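Late entry, evening session. Most of the bench is empty. Finally got around to the prediction I had been postponing all week. Sequence below, unchanged from the version circulated by S.P.
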Amino acid sequence: MSDALTLIEAALFQLKAAAADVDPMNASQVQLTVNMLANAIDSARSGVSPATVNDVEFALNDLAGIVRELSAADADRIEPIVKLLQEDVERLKESTSLPVTVTTAIRALQSKLKARRAAIEKQTYRPEGAPVEELPHPPQDLRREAVPLRQQLASAGFSTPALDGLIADPESLRFHSITEILNELDVIVG
């Protein structure tokens, strides 16, 4: 287990103690987000990867949002622990980040997907009788780029159901499925 994860677990212990005394009106929301964070940290304990760190960061962001809604007394007690957790998660994130080659490949694929999506949208609004322009980046070409990318992301612990759809059936690539892939990749690269 990494030093950063050990620090995160120590801060989680402090957080649980501080959260136990939250105003009863907000207690259930706080406990829910603390439990989500604890579950994400438990997952990371069995294997730290970019995907598990992503899950921890997501749960921590949910908790930070709830803390902003608390009374001043409760927030003053919990917010420093959340800030500490955010710093520790940032360090963990830096140590487990995806290789530059993978993030570059993701950005290149996203760029092509955005160009295709924009062309599809433009076709929707073309004047009646105007010639249909060929769409850029044929689905088969996008699939060829997606296959090694999916393998690299899977080895980093990410599941990619939208990208898997492109790989399984490239001819079904449409405006909305492109948006799903783009959103999925955005979550991965941040």
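Two things to note before I forget:
Residues 5 and 83 are 15 Å apart (CA to CA).
DSSP finds eight helices and no strands in the chain.
Will write this up properly tomorrow.
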